[in-house]
Amino acid sequence: MATNENRQRKASRYVVPVAVAGVAAATIGLVPALAASGDPDLPEITAQQLIEKIAASDTQTLSGTFKISTDLGLPSFAGLLPAAPSGSSSADPADKLTQLVSGSHTLRLAADGPDRQKLTLLDGSDEYSLVHNGNDVWAYDSKSNEVFHEKADGKGPKPEDTKLPGTPKELADEVLKAAGDTTSITVGGTAKVAGRDAYQLVIKPKQSGSMVESVKISVDASTGTPLKFTLASVDGGKPVVDAGFTKVDFGKPEASAFDFKAPKGAKVTEGAAEKGAHEGADKPFGGLGDLAGLGGFGAGPDGKDGSVNVIGEGWTTIAKLDSGTPAPKTDEAPKEVQGFLDALGDKVSGKFGSGTVFKTKLVNALMTDDGKVYVGAVTPQKLVDTANAAK
């Protein structure tokens, strides 16, 4: 169970850096409209030129409203999550922002340079606000009338510490080179997004066996700021993640937008500063790049003793973990947990033996009865084929 200290992670980790605010909001994802007669007539542009345009974007100020909807195809977690430990705050971003991984939500965003950002999550008449202003990070949950406060330590990565290509063109070249034979990157027409003209960048796997059908990013034609994005699954139906700006203004927000004063009678919890570097602390969204390549697992040579062996490349990369112990039997789990696992899992068998595939619309995992685990953003059949080939 998570400790109080772990739950009181740095709130500053969850504040979107302004220089990439548009990118971050877009990377949560919204399905761009299909080409229609109302789409803007813009000058032709290549995929490389559009990537260069994104890289050259220097959006420092903006305000707007965007919507997020996520659908991983998971059954309800109701009744499965443990209660928050005594002494924790309902306003702690480490817990509150996990709401964004399911359902539909409306947010308001304001940003003014790297030191001032505000995000407000609207839920009916209730609001949850996260404010970064200078050295302070505040979070307020109106439903519980609780406040979470922490000092920003300024220990994030510095621009000079980040090794990137020197120009937008060089960056675009590197992106296209990295895509290589596994990825198709094209421009898929234009669209109106939040009242602005936008190009659509379409990214698709060339490899078979990936759960990703496509990634689409709508890019503001004037500023190069991504405005919305979709991640669609080969399973079809609703996008895995669907979000994007419905209103956006690139003007400078009023300074008062970032002021915060704890409401009268509110319970204020001071966050405990973490000791040492926290893995992924410099990645506001948990390091999405690592998910694509599974590069953050620290692969071992054979996947034993808790280390991970990475199999394959690109969109069909699979991580193999050998726990060294037989898989737990779901029929021995508590009734409510057993129902949840049964809704997720399918029994499978092959040369590897037998096991269970736990499914979502994006990431699937095969747990064999002898304790091996194969996981990746690939189809269940790809997992079974990989397990068979390992024999």
Helix-strand blueprint:
Layout lengths: L3 H4 L13 H6 L20 H10 L4 E10 L22 H4 L6 E10 L3 E8 L2 E8 L2 E6 L4 E6 L16 H12 L3 E11 L2 E10 L6 E9 L5 E8 L7 E9 L17 E4 L17 H6 L14 E4 L6 E5 L12 H10 E6 L2 E6 L5 E5 L3 E5 L3 H10 L2
Parallel strand pairs: 6-12
Antiparallel strand pairs: 1-2, 1-11, 2-3, 3-4, 4-5, 5-6, 7-8, 8-9, 9-10, 10-11, 13-14, 14-18, 15-16, 16-17, 17-18
Describe this structure in words.
- With 391 residues, this protein is an alpha+beta fold.
- The chain has 2 domains: 4-286, outer membrane lipoprotein receptor (LolB), chain A; 293-389, TATA-Binding Protein.
- It contains 8 helices and 18 strands.
- It has helices at residues 4-7, 21-26, 47-56, 93-96, 168-179, 288-293, 335-344, 380-389, and strands spanning 61-70, 103-112, 116-123, 126-133, 136-141, 146-151, 183-193, 196-205, 212-220, 226-233, 241-249, 267-270, 308-311, 318-322, 345-350, 353-358, 364-368, 372-376.
- Strands 7-8-9-10-11-1-2-3-4-5-6-12 form a 12-stranded mixed sheet.
- A hairpin with a 2-residue loop joins strand 7 and strand 8.
